[in-house]
Amino acid sequence: MFDVLVCDMSFTPFINYITLEKRFSPHTQHAYRADLKSFAAFCKSNYDLTDLSQVHYPMIRDWIVYLSKEGRKNQTINRKCSVLKTYFGFLQKVGQIKHSPMQFHRQLKATPKLVVPLTETEFRAVFDMYDDKDYTGARDALMLELLYTTGIRRAELLSLNLDAYDSISAQWRVVGKRNKMRLIPLLPKVVKRIDAYLTFRNAEANASSTNLLFFNTKGKALNPSYVYKCVTSYLSKVSTKQKVSPHVLRHTFATHLLNRGADINSIKEILGHKSLSSTQIYAKVQLPKMKQDYITAHPRA
């Protein structure tokens, strides 16, 4: 790998742009900055170029070849190229370049990652593992319940605010990607679990210093890695699937709703997807079941 420190270029104006105008999350901002620094380091090392406004597409093509030889998957390379496309689009917008070197770029063919969801039996086994007799146990159990019963993203989970919780209407106002607000419905059992957790939460030392639903010993938001470790700790005990993560629970949520006949447009709204195409990926998991239903139910079968 090239040392990204060789390039001292400031991407602050661009980061401000994707933060204030595009409303990208802090995680995305960090990823974009890292990818740009890596590309800048490549340009410095190979072309002694420190001004990315002077980049031409052959340089980008060489970078793509380099990434491929390094073993990066096409999906990863496409994501990094998307960062460049956004960056050069910004330079074009502010008048630093006339034409983007990415204007004729075509994405590499990539096989979509198909996340295998948990079965209903597997997640029912998780229920029996809850140890919710103290603050930590109640907190971890509620995190799993919310991830599974609402399809909420990990970042959204960590930003849940008590002021946005309506126990009467059984819903929570969530701030999603690009600061888009949506209401997520809560099951009666989940409302009961929330209320039980709040009893433990409000007795904690830093409870009065924050409105966050979940917080650490300093009264700050939990680290995303904690949620990941919590989820994998539970799920790895009930499933032999290689991939178990908070995002797998989001897939599981959507898949189980589809299994039981939920309308895909309703699922789209709950998940906070901008377009239906983002939600339809979950329907692909259902293809074997759809085929079996078709063979069983059609009059000509």
Question: What is the fold's blueprint, element by element?
Answer:
Blueprint: H1 12-20, H2 26-47, H3 57-69, H4 74-93, H5 120-127, H6 135-150, H7 154-158, E1 165-166, E2 171-175, E3 181-185, H8 188-201, H9 224-235, H10 246-259, H11 264-271, H12 276-284, H13 287-297
Antiparallel strand pairs: 1-2, 2-3
Helix pairs in contact: 6-8, 6-10, 11-12
Descriptive report:
Helices cover 53% and strands 4% of the residues. By secondary structure, it is mainly α. It folds into 2 domains: 4-93; 120-294, Orthogonal Bundle (hpI Integrase, Chain A). Helix 6 runs antiparallel to helix 8 (188-201), helix 6 crosses helix 10 and helix 11 (264-271) crosses helix 12 (276-284). The termini are far apart.
Counting structural domains, the number is 2
The rough form would be described as globular
Secondary structure tally: strands: 3
Helical percent range? 40-55%
- Give the class from helix and strand content and strand pairing: mainly alpha
How far is the first residue's CA from the last residue's CA?
A: 57 Å
Q: In CATH terms, what is the fold-level topology of the largest domain?
A: hpI Integrase, Chain A
Number of helices: 13
Question: Largest sheet, described in full?
Answer: 3 strands, antiparallel
